[in-house]
């Protein structure tokens, strides 16, 4: 047996080193402390910040304080709500001329959809004749009240469309702006 140990000294030394390494690795891992992380949140600091945050969450938004215009509905975007609030402020200062009874279907003007039609109605614009009579100053005043729709009156040429629709010249309208 002694001669077997002498002939395989290198292999035995490797086995001993391997056993020492495994033993060190097992005991080193057992003795080390697990890594703990401390998480902080609102409740770690006490109840005052939690109460403040709850109050901010429960507070009504600015959009909830303004009632949407008639016909726009409760799911109106913030642009429509802000435009309506601005329109109320401006309409108190400079009233728009009253429309003839009944009004026209402003939705026939290219570029005027249901939301914009409702917004124009809330501004007192309900007829082609009103739009046809707009001057550059009127367009600028109305444009300032249209919120996210600002610039549409000029870009879509509402005044010319309204003139043709008010005159009843459907052929000229369709030639220039397409099918009604």
Automatic annotation (TrEMBL):
One MF term in the entry's GO annotations: endonuclease activity
Gene3D superfamilies, sorted: 5' to 3' exonuclease, C-terminal subdomain
Domain of life of the source: Bacteria
Membrane spanning stretches: 6-27
Keyword annotations of the record: Endonuclease, Hydrolase, Membrane, Nuclease, Transmembrane, Transmembrane helix
Name used for this protein in its record: Putative flap endonuclease-1-like 5' DNA nuclease
């Amino acid at each position: 047996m002694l001669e077997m140990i002498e002939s395989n000294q290198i292999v035995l030394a490797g086995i001993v080193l391997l056993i020492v390494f495994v033993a060190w690795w097992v005991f080193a891992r057992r003795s080390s402390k697990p890594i703990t992380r401390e998480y902080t949140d609102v409740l770690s600091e006490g109840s005052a910040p939690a109460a403040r945050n709850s109050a901010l969450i429960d507070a009504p938004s600015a959009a909830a304080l303004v009632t949407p215009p008639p016909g726009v509905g409760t799911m109106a975007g913030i642009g429509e709500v802000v435009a309506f609030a601005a329109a109320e402020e401006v309409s108190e200062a400079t009233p728009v001329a009253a429309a003839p009874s009944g009004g026209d279907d402003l939705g026939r003007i290219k570029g005027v959809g249901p939301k914009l039609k409702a917004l124009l109605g809330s501004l007192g614009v309900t007829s082609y004749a009103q739009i046809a009579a707009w001057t550059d100053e009127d367009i600028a005043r109305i444009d300032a009240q249209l919120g996210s729709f600002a610039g549409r009156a000029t870009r879509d040429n509402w005044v010319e469309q309204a003139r043709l629709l008010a005159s009843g010249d459907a052929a000229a309208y369709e030639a220039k702006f397409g099918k009604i």
